[in-house]
Design goal:
Elements lengths: L1 H42 L1 H10 L7 H24 L2 H13 L7 H11 L9 E5 L8 E8 L5 E6 L7 E6 L4 E4 L3 H9 L6 H8 L3
């Protein structure tokens, strides 16, 4: 009875954690965009008023036109900044500003990670499964890839069974990390059941060998 209760508890806990990982970045990004929209809207208010007053459109379209102008300004600004950062001078300035100013701003790193995950530039935590050699020998353990670094190092989270919400974090060279074609849900079930049902993990590894 107790093991069944524990498995049910772990299932709801991991499901809730998975939902938070999906929803929280979207909420943070939404608040960040709302903040940016408010700043741009206030900054270009004279321009917006001038354009709206010179258009011969019904009054009910004024707010829509104003919102459209703000969105166009934000898109144009992002495009201009992105174009500038592609240049050597732009990359140099951006790297310097980010390292000395932006990285010290509260919440900057979290928002940057959120945007990268939302745009698909960086996979969200627990998005892929791997068998890893944490002892650099033939022993392999189930893990979730949580981060990849510029020097090639891969950060993984190795959960403990039957409670996958606790575990250990390892930073490994890529040759010791073997991604497998197994869903996160299947890997979680294997962890919760203390390794039972790991056949998909083994077969997934053999496909890459």
């Amino acid at each position: 009875m107790i093991p069944m209760f524990q498995r049910t508890k772990n299932f709801f806990r991991t499901t809730l954690l998975g939902g938070i990982i999906v929803i929280l970045p979207a909420i943070i990004l939404g608040f960040a965009f709302k903040w940016l929209f408010g700043i741009v809207s206030h900054a270009i208010q004279p321009l917006t008023r001038l354009v709206v007053n010179n258009l011969t459109l019904p009054d009910q379209y004024d707010e829509f036109i104003a919102i459209l102008i703000v969105l166009l300004v934000i898109i144009l600004g992002c495009f201009t900044v992105g174009l500038f950062v592609k240049t050597r001078l732009g990359r140099w300035i951006y790297t310097g500003v980010e390292g000395s100013v932006l990285s010290k701003a509260p919440g900057y790193k979290m928002i940057k990670e959120t945007v990268n995950q939302f745009l698909g530039k960086k996979k969200s935590p627990f998005s892929s499964v791997a068998l890893v050699q944490i002892f650099e020998n033939d022993t392999k353990v189930t893990a979730f890839i949580t981060d990849r670094h510029d020097d090639g190092t891969i950060t993984v989270f190795v959960p403990t069974g039957p409670n996958p919400t606790s575990g250990f974090i390892y930073h490994l060279d890529p040759q010791y990390v073997h991604p497998v074609d197994v869903s996160v849900e299947d890997a979680m079930r294997s962890v919760i059941s203390c390794g039972a049902g790991s056949e998909k993990l083994i077969k997934g590894l053999k496909k890459h060998v």
